[in-house]
Design goal:
The protein has helices spanning 14-25, 43-53, 58-69, 96-99, 101-104, 125-135, 137-143, 145-163, 177-180, 189-192, 219-234, 257-276, 282-299, 336-347, 382-394, 398-414, 435-445, and strands spanning 41-42, 81-82, 173-174, 254-255, 300-301, 306-307, 310-311, 316-317, 380-381, 420-421, 428-429. It is mainly alpha-helical. It starts with 13 loop residues before the first helix and ends with a helix. Bound molecules: (2R)-2-(alpha-D-glucopyranosyloxy)-3-hydroxypropanoic acid. Residues 33, 38, 42, 44-45, 80, 178, 181, 183, 207 line the site of (2R)-2-(alpha-D-glucopyranosyloxy)-3-hydroxypropanoic acid. The site of (2R)-2-(alpha-D-glucopyranosyloxy)-3-hydroxypropanoic acid has 10 residues, from helix 2. Belongs to the glycosyl hydrolase 63 family.
Amino acid sequence: VYEADVTTHGPHALHIRAAEVLEGNWTGTSTVPSRGLYPHQWSWDSAFIAIGLRHLSPLRAQTELETLLSAQWGDGRIPHIVFNPSVPLDAYFPSPDFWRSSTAGRAAGAPRTVQTSGIVQPPVHALAVWLVHQADPGLSRARGFLARAYPRLAAWHRYLLHRRDLGGGGLASVVHPWEQGMDNSPCWDAPLSRVTPAPARSFRRADLDHGAAEDRPTDLDYGRYVRLATDYRDGGYRDGLGGGYGAGTGEFAVEDPSFNALLIASEHALARIARELGATGTARHARAERLTAALVERLWDPAEGLFFCRDVVEGTLVPERGVSGLVPLLLPTLPRDIAATLVRTARGPHFEVGGAARLVPSYDLLGEAFDPHRYWRGPAWFNTGWLVERGLRQHGEQAHADALRTALLETADASEFAEYVDPYTGEACGALGFGWTAALTLDLLH
Ligand code: 9WN
């Protein structure tokens, strides 16, 4: 039983404070990750936020996802940011005038009425849609929530499995570190090193107005992020081989375990949605099975007991241990021995889950690049903690899951729903009042 809500911050219960954060970040049609640092709608944030919001207001949770889905491009991609037109351009970089979605993205079917980025984020959406439906099936049916979401989700998965299978092995590739969501993870260092950075003078980082420079990615990282995004944009956001990988240059294409595991979990969810809508869902479950086999075949390293990123350009696994490699634990049909090995790795010296680490570090505690405060190079995040907690439960590790759940709740509470925390001390880093931290706290409390 979790009781820290009455001790750490006085009598104001944790779930009430989490609800207040979500209320404060709500814009009327969606929820911002953070009022200061991230003042627009983010794709995978919205999925996690909806998973928590469903406990407060199933209608708001449905609306959150519908707002995102309505910004989908004609080619099926769901953009990583949907811009709020009432927010000043200089509040976040890169802004709509950088992405130029409605012009540069025209051939790819970018929407005309709303401005978006042109890259994607992890496909947590079908999973979120299914969980939101389950919170209030009556409301969902009355509003035709699943029937309207299903074709969009199906097109989204089709985009990832066809246009983004750059390695030809059945998995989806990301063409920018922002797409995978763990922006400056050391897993990207080697593949990114081939990218010539855009000059620092050519852009202005708005993130440094809100976040401490030593907790954020470096200027060199940003130069490379800008170069990749610029090249992708200038190629009309075209995907595929020939003119190069997604970015049109062939410089960056990576198969990531977490991105693909979330796609598989969402494919299973899409099968359930199809069933609810009167189809069998069998073909989708079968596809999820094939994808799981491809994930194991292409990204599992039995000697290390972890999934790794595959650098598609080099054709090799990237030898860095990131939390991304633990996320496939989420998959219900992961081979038993692999699941058992992943649990051992999570609890072992590199991640120390349930040991010296309070939550789940984003990167190898023993890795050369480990930094307890710098964004995705060590700090613990709540979305990945939630995913690993779910994975532990999925594979019968109830005691470990319970311990992680308690740690997540205590840390969310004590850190004022921080964006991320020092993995050893739980000290808050980044933005406070962060959307998915509050939302996933609510989910864990239910
Ligand atoms: C770039 C919004 C997003 C998260 C990402 C996180 C961070 C953006 C940034 O914030 O990325 O998309 O500006 O640093 O890395 O996972 O979705 O919360």
